Amino acid sequence: QSMLTQPPSASGTPGQRVTLSCSGSSSNLGSGSVNWYQQFPGTAPKLLIYNTNQRPSGVPDRFSGSKSGTSASLAISGLQSEDEADYYCAAWDDILNGLVFGGGTKLTVL
Amino acid sequence: QVQLVQSGAEVKKPGASVKVSCTASGYTFTAYTIHWVRQAPGQGLEWMGRINPNGGDTNSPPKFQGRVTMTRDTSISTAYMELSRLTSDDTAVYYCARERSGTGEDSWGRGTQVTVSS
Q1: What mean pLDDT comes out for the span A6-24?
Q2: What is the DSSP secondary-structure string of A17-79?
Q3: CA A73 to chain centroid
Q4: Are B91 and B30 in contact (CB under 8 A)?
Q5: Does the pLDDT at position A1 exceed 80?
Q6: Does B72 touch chain A (CB under 8 A)?
Q7: Tens digit of pLDDT for each residue in A53-91?
Q8: For position B103, what pLDDT does the model report?
């Protein structure tokens, strides 16, 4: 069981804005930042958002992150078919003294 | 360009150990922490631990303590993850990734498939 909770699936239509959620606790999301990763089948994860709302170079500004208390969100605006992938959140946990991941959300573009 | 090149697929018997390597290029090896993350078939990502190549200090979650050993050889910019007492539950793709404090794991290896089967 993951320490961060993500809905297993989400969907949207092209052009739509979708929001993926990630819920944690005071020892992880409540005390630090969150990262988001995108993963296509058979490939390594790719860093999408770091430090809650920062985009690495090359990541489109359609992707944005936010956090409030012990919950975090990844928003994707102008949804495109190529956004269909698995999305994972991750945060440092102060009690575990380690990185914890959410179980991932499979995003389907209808 | 930044690259993390991992060693090839492994097939091991239960009870054996496996050692996966991760060779870095395109950046200063000692400037970034190396994380190890695994993914079982059809499952999510699981953090196994990290090593600071500049000094060699490591930490890993309780689940893997006593079973995982992370080392590095700075002369060849390579990090290693050894997992012992393998069981079928350890069948997974093992990834290495680099991270500089606060900036996330921005570069990942392509993964190493480890299969544990009798």
Answers
A1: 98
A2: -EEEEEE--TTTTTTS-EEEEEE-TTS--EEEEBTTTBPPTT--TTEEEEEETTEEEEEE-S-
A3: 7
A4: no
A5: no
A6: no
A7: 999 999 999 999 999 999 999 999 999 999 999 999 999
A8: 87
What 3-state DSSP class applies to A110? coil
Cα–Cα separations (whole angstroms), residue B71 to A7, B96, B100: 36, 13, 18
* CB nearest A88 (choices: B44, B61, B110): B44
Of B44, B45, B61, the CB nearest to A96: B61
The pair of three-digit structure tokens given for residue A34, joined into one six-digit string: 């969150």
Both tokens assigned to B109: 């290896």
pLDDT tier, B70 (very low <50, low <70, confident <90, very high otherwise): very high
Tens of pLDDT along B48-69? 999 999 999 999 999 999 999 9
* Neighboring chain B residues of A96 at a CB cutoff of 8 Å: 61-62
For β-strands A105-109 and A9-12, DSSP reports them as parallel
Is B109 close to A44, i.e. CB distance below 8 A? yes
Q: Smallest CA–CA separation between A105 and chain B, in Å?
A: 9
Among the partner residues A49, A99, A104, nearest to B47 by beta-carbon distance: A99
